[in-house]
Each structure stands twice: as structure tokens, then as C-alpha cells.
Amino acid sequence: MADACASSIAKSPASGNAKTSTIAEGNERLHFESIIDKWITHTSTDISDSFIAMMKAATGKTGELTEAQKRMHWFEIRGDNIMTSSETGSKANWAHYLYAMNLIKGHLHKHYGATMSEQVMLITPYARHKQLYQAAFQALRDQQGWTEAELPILADVASSIGHHRNILLIDLVVSKSGSDLDGMKDDRRLPVVFTCAKMSCWVIAGDLQHA
């Protein structure tokens, strides 16, 4: 891509030593590259200065951002952190889940507050991983008094289609190249998922440069 999406490398938040840093642009994720390029080209919702400031704080980006950097960010969580159900084969990833929940409870909630459900949608392709978020969201309701308006819309790939939010947070769950993306590698489906984002898309995944 001429103006590639930016990426961060992060250690698992579970270790208590989470770290994110901007790396050189141009890392190819061969399957996603052309789809992301097309989405960035066609999305046009204006991005406010306050959102850019929040995004920089969340991603570690500094300086003047390109249009691609504003529209797309890739959180690269290192390590094989997958748990697979022996009964259903559905996957979950605690490192991804914890990283996403830190974003939701921290930067995103501070920025959006009671408008979160109108602004943010979280998509994950695996039922087992979705259950982690459902339990976490219920705990926020019960223990911290969060309302539905303060929580992102939670969806899987199929149920996300036709719904749009300014911010799309995609947790791919998988953590290494060659992993089964449970339908996310379907070229007919993935472009539709990206169009759910009207303004900016954040992807949480592992090292998928050659996925």
C-alpha cells in the first residue's frame, strides 16, 4: 500500500507489562492489504481533533498523522495466546480480550462516555471469545453501574452486517500466521465488515503478515 495502515506491537496486558510502540509502516498483511486500501479510499466521515488526540494516546502515535493512520490501526499482540474449546472448536484469546477491555474502559469510555453504543462497535468472529466480552460487559453493569449506552455494540461477523458505527474495533482472536479466521478470510464477507466503520477501524490481532 502506498499509504499503509500503522501498527503497534504490544505485550499481553495479562503480564502487567503492556507496551505499545509505533513501528515502521509498510508491513504487509497480504490478505487484508487490498481490502483495507479500498476501505480507506472510500470512507469519508470527518475526524475531529479530539478523536485524533484520543487515538494518539491509545496507540502511541505521535506527530502529524496521514489519512491512513487516522482511519486504520493494527494492534499486534505477540505470542500464541489461543484457547480452543474441546467440544466446539471455538476459540478465545485472553490477551486480546484484556487489551480490548483496557481500550474500552480507558480511552474509549473517557472519550465517548454515555454515547459509546452510538459510536463504537466491537466485532469478534468466535462465539467463545464473544462470551468473554458478554461476561465483562455484564460485570460493568452490575459492579460499576455502566448503562447500555456506555458499552460498545457487540457483534459477530454475520450480525454486524448492516450496522454502522463511527469506530469499529475488530478482535480477530487469532494470534499467528496461518490461523483459521472463521470466515474473516472470505473475500465476499470481509469488505462488508470493514464498511461497518464510518470513521476509523482498529484491529486487534497477532502476527498476520503472511496470513
TrEMBL record:
<protein>
    <recommendedName>
        <fullName>DNA2/NAM7 helicase-like C-terminal domain-containing protein</fullName>
    </recommendedName>
</protein>
<feature type="domain" description="DNA2/NAM7 helicase-like C-terminal">
    <location>
        <begin position="63"/>
        <end position="205"/>
    </location>
</feature>
<dbReference type="InterPro" id="IPR041679">
    <property type="entry name" value="DNA2/NAM7-like_C"/>
</dbReference>
<feature type="region of interest" description="Disordered">
    <location>
        <begin position="1"/>
        <end position="22"/>
    </location>
</feature>
<dbReference type="Pfam" id="PF13087">
    <property type="entry name" value="AAA_12"/>
</dbReference>
<dbReference type="InterPro" id="IPR027417">
    <property type="entry name" value="P-loop_NTPase"/>
</dbReference>
